[in-house]
C-alpha cells in the first residue's frame, strides 16, 4: 500500500525561518554603519579606529565559520544556531554598555561576530542538504539577510531620534530575542526526507551528488581557489560601501533619514537580486550568472561617488543592490556542485573565512583612506577594481558538467517508499 505523499516539504520552513533569523543578525550588525558617527562624536574616535571594530568582527566571524563548519558536519546545524543566537543577543546588549575601545572591540568585534557565524555556514550547509531541486532559489531566500538594512537602518535612525545610541542598542538587543524561537524551528536534514522527488509506482527518486570530496581534496582543485579569490574581491568591493556608504551620503549633504531610505532601497534590491540570481543560476548555471551580477555591482560604484541629487542615489541603490545581493547563494550552490556534501560544512567554513577577510578589509580600507585623504573616492574606486577582477575570474571557472563526467557517472538511487 502506497504511503500518502507529504503535502508540505519542511525544507521551506527552514528556508524562511533562516531568512528571518539571519535578517535580524545581519541587520543589527549593518546598523553599526548608522551608529558610526554618534560613537565617533561621543568618544572622539577616528573613523579608522572605529573601522577596526568592523575588521575584528569579520575576522572573528570568519574564524567562527571555520569552527561552525566542522561542528555542523559532526553535530548538525540546529544546536549551533541556538547557541549562536544566544551569544549574539548577549553581544548586542553589551554594546549598550561600552565605555572604551576594548569594550567595543570585544562586544561588537568578538561576541556578536561569533554568534552571527552560526547563521552562516550551519544554515547554508543545512539548506544544501535539504534541497536538490530549486537549490538556488532556496539558498537565495535564506541568505537574503542583506535586506536587513531595509528594516534596521530606518529603525536605528528612529531609535537614535528617540534616545541615544546606548538606548538604541538596548532596544535592538531586546528585539533580537526573536532569534531563539526561529532557531528552534530548525531541523537537521536526517530527521526528514531531503531533496526527494516522488516517482510513480510507489517509488521515490533521490538524486545523489556525483562528486564527494573532503576539504583537503577540494583544496587541491583550481575551482576551489578560484571561487575563494572571487569572494575575496567581491566582498572587498561591497563591504566598503556597506560600512561607509551612510557616512558618505551624509557627508555630501543628505539627511540621515534620506540616507537610511537609500540604504533600505539598496537592501530590498539586494534581496530581489539574490532571488533573481538564484533562479537564473538554476536555469543557466552559476558561472555566467555570477559574472553578470559581479560586473553590475562594480560598474555602478562611480555613479555613487559622483552623485549629489537624491534621485541619483536612489537609482544607484537599485542597481548596486541587485548586483551585490545576488552572488552569495550561488557560491554555495557551486561548492555543492563541484565538491558534493561530504564535507560541505568544512569547505564552506574556509569560504566564509575568506569572505570575512574581504568584508573586514574593505571596511578598514575605507576608514583608513578617508582619514588620510578626507574623501571616499579612492577606496570606492578601489572597490570597483576588485569587483571587476572577481567578475573576470567567474568566467574562468571550469564547467561543472565536464568535471562531473571526469569524476563519476551520474548516480540515481531508486528507493521503494
Walk me through the structure.
There is one protein chain. This protein is mainly alpha-helical. The chain has one domain: Up-down Bundle (Growth Hormone, Chain: A), CATH 1.20.1250. Strands 1-2-3 form a three-stranded antiparallel β-sheet, with no helix packed on it. Strand 1 and strand 2 form a beta hairpin. Helix 6 crosses helix 18 and helix 12 packs parallel to helix 18. It is globular, with a radius of gyration of 21 Å.
Which helices and strands appear, and what pairs or packs with what?
Blueprint: H1 11-30, H2 32-43, H3 47-75, H4 78-95, H5 101-117, H6 121-130, H7 135-142, H8 148-162, H9 165-175, H10 179-184, E1 196-198, E2 203-207, H11 215-218, H12 222-251, H13 256-284, H14 286-299, H15 301-306, H16 310-325, H17 327-339, H18 344-373, H19 377-395, H20 400-407, E3 412-416
Antiparallel strand pairs: 1-2, 2-3
Helix pairs in contact: 1-7, 1-8, 2-12, 3-5, 3-6, 3-18, 4-5, 4-9, 6-7, 6-18, 7-13, 7-17, 8-9, 8-13, 12-13, 12-17, 12-18, 12-19, 13-14, 13-16, 13-17, 14-16, 14-17, 14-19, 18-19
Structural class: mainly alpha
As for the number of domains, it is: 1
Which fold name corresponds to the CATH topology? Growth Hormone, Chain: A
The CATH architecture assignment turns out to be: Up-down Bundle
Which sequence of SSEs, written as H and E, runs from N to C? HHHHHHHHHHEEHHHHHHHHHHE
Termini Cα gap: 9 Å
Low-confidence stretches: 191-209, 405-417
CATH class bucket: Mainly Alpha
Biggest sheet details: 3 strands, antiparallel
Helix content: over 70%
Question: How many DSSP H or I helices?
Answer: 20
Which percent band covers the strand fraction? under 5%
Number of strands: 3
* Fourth CATH level, the homologous superfamily: MFS general substrate transporter like domains
Lateral arrangement of strands in the main beta sheet: 1-2-3
User: Looking at the chains present, what oligomeric state does this protein adopt?
Assistant: single chain
Amino acid at each position: 500500500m502506497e504511503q500518502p505523499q507529504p503535502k508540505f516539504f519542511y525544507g521551506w520552513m527552514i528556508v524562511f525561518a533562516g531568512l528571518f533569523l539571519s535578517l535580524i543578525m545581519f541587520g543589527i550588525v549593518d546598523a553599526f554603519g548608522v551608529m558610526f558617527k554618534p560613537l565617533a562624536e561621543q568618544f572622539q574616535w577616528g573613523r579608522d579606529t572605529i573601522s577596526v571594530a568592523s575588521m575584528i568582527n569579520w575576522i572573528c566571524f570568519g574564524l567562527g565559520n571555520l569552527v561552525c563548519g566542522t561542528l555542523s558536519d559532526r553535530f548538525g546545524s540546529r544546536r549551533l544556531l541556538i547557541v549562536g543566537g544566544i551569544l549574539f543577543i548577549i553581544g548586542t546588549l553589551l554594546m549598550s554598555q561600552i565605555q572604551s575601545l576594548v569594550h567595543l572591540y570585544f562586544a561588537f568585534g568578538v561576541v556578536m561576530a561569533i554568534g552571527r557565524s552560526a547563521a552562516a555556514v550551519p544554515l547554508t550547509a543545512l539548506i544544501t542538504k535539504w534541497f536538490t531541486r530549486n537549490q538556488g532559489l532556496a539558498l537565495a531566500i535564506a541568505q537574503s539577510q542583506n535586506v536587513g538594512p531595509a528594516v534596521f537602518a530606518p529603525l536605528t535612525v528612529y531609535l537614535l531620534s528617540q534616545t541615544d545610541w546606548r538606548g538604541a542598542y538596548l532596544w535592538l538587543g531586546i528585539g533580537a530575542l526573536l532569534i531563539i524561537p526561529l532557531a528552534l524551528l530548525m531541523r537537521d536534514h536526517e530527521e526528514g526526507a531531503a531533496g526527494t522527488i516522488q516517482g510513480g509506482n510507489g517509488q521515490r527518486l533521490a538524486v545523489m551528488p556525483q562528486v564527494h570530496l573532503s576539504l583537503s581534496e577540494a583544496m587541491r582543485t583550481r575551482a576551489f581557489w578560484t571561487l575563494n579569490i572571487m569572494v575575496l574581491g567581491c566582498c572587498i568591493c561591497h563591504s566598503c560601501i556597506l560600512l561607509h556608504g551612510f557616512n558618505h551620503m551624509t557627508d555630501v549633504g543628505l539627511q540621515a533619514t534620506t540616507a537610511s531610505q537609500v540604504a533600505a532601497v539598496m537592501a530590498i534590491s539586494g534581496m530581489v537580486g539574490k532571488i533573481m540570481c538564484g533562479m537564473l543560476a538554476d536555469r543557466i548555471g552559476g558561472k555566467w550568472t555570477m559574472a553578470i551580477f559581479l560586473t553590475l555591482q562594480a560598474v555602478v560604484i562611480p555613479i555613487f561617488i559622483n552623485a549629489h541629487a537624491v534621485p541619483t542615489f536612489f537609482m544607484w541603490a537599485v542597481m548596486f543592490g541587485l548586483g551585490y545581493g545576488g552572488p552569495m547563494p550561488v557560491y554555495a550552490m557551486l561548492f555543492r556542485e563541484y565538491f558534493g556534501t561530504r564535507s560541505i560544512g568544512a569547505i564552506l567554513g574556509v569560504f566564509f573565512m575568506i569572505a570575512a577577510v574581504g568584508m573586514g578589509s574593505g571596511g578598514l580600507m575605507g576608514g583608513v583612506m578617508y582619514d588620510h585623504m578626507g574623501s571616499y573616492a579612492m577606496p570606492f574606486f578601489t572597490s570597483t577594481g576588485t569587483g571587476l577582477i572577481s567578475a573576470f575570474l567567474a568566467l574562468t571557472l571550469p564547467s561543472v558538467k565536464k568535471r562531473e563526467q571526469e569524476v563519476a557517472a551520474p548516480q540515481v538511487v531508486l528507493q521503494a517508499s
